[in-house]
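Sequence design from tokenized structure. All designs in this work follow the same two-part layout: the structure record, then the generated sequence. An example of the structure record is given first.
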């Protein structure tokens, strides 16, 4: 199917992805999962669940392979590749305009909202309350909201949420960490710099950033549901409330005179979907 794994599309947290072609004609992306500890039956049950997910903004699973300890997932092929090449300008690529980026962010949010609603399938009375009432301790849902917030921040600002170097002072940290910087900037009533951006585009970027700032609140409880995120993105910029200043670490771990202390971390690892990529790559929580 992959012709000997010769066309590597990329690599994610779960393994490498190769381009393949089904005998019936269409191209596919084959994700080779790193060595699995679960048995084949568990994998097939998980795949059966994922296979029931159908949404225009969620890549469709079209098949799977199990052979010994090897596992592979087969997805429909996305010819345009990863979003990052359309957000950050690189040689040979044309970055998308502000409105298009906004539309894509809305569609991504719609896809995650669908996944969160789909995960709550079950019979009322047997379903755990946190699956039904998403606001009571649904940490896994809110972890996805955080990841989406980081992505949204990157999409609006065209800046990578890069890791802040260790050893910097709290003041240096506040200037270097974009979400904190931009929070101060908007609170002071300043515009978001967009090259040749119209007023409408500046407002769209501001709206995306305010929603992103809500999504990346330190406490999961303070983050909105994906339902609310979609509403906020679709609504007017003027009707949005400014969120509290974001923190990258739980506040009690900040040691003001000696830079940052990393001894307590927050568990953001639980996730219901594969939208965890931004968190794995760009937050230092996993690197401490
Ligand atoms: N369906 C697909 N069609 C085309 N390319 C794909 C497809 N799925 C993945 N890729 C390519 O493979 C890369 C790795 O994808 P993968 O889904 O494994 O990881 P990720 O989403 O980048 O991160 P994570 O594993 O943390 O979710 C992507 O960045 C993309 O370039």
């Amino acid at each position: 199917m992959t012709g000997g794994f010769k066309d590597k599309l990329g690599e994610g947290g779960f393994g490498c992805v190769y381009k393949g072609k089904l005998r019936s004609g269409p191209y596919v992306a084959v994700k080779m999962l790193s060595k699995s500890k679960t048995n084949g039956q568990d994998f097939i049950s998980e795949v059966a669940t994922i296979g029931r997910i159908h949404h225009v903004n969620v890549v469709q699973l079209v098949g799977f392979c199990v052979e010994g300890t090897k596992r592979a997932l087969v997805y429909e092929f996305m010819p345009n590749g990863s979003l990052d090449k359309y957000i950050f300008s690189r040689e040979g690529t044309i970055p998308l305009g502000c409105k298009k980026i906004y539309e894509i962010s809305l569609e991504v949010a719609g896809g995650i909202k669908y996944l969160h609603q789909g995960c709550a399938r079950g019979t009322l009375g047997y379903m755990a309350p946190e699956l039904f009432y998403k606001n009571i301790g649904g940490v896994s849902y809110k972890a996805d909201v955080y990841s989406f917030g980081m992505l949204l921040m990157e999409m609006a600002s065209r800046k990578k949420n890069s890791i802040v170097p260790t050893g910097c002072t709290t003041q240096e940290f506040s200037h270097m960490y974009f979400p904190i910087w931009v929070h101060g900037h908007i609170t002071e009533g300043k515009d978001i710099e967009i090259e040749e951006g119209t007023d409408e585009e500046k407002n769209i970027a501001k709206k995306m950033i305010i929603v992103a700032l809500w999504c990346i609140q330190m406490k999961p409880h303070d983050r909105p549901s994906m339902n609310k995120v979609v509403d906020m993105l679709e609504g007017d910029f003027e009707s949005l409330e400014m969120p509290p200043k974001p923190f990258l670490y739980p506040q009690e771990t900040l040691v003001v005179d000696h830079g940052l202390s990393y001894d307590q971390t927050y568990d953001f690892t639980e996730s219901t979907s594969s939208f965890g990529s931004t968190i794995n790559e760009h937050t230092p929580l996993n690197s401490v």
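The chain is about 40% helix and 10% strand. We note this feature because it recurs in several other targets discussed in the main text.
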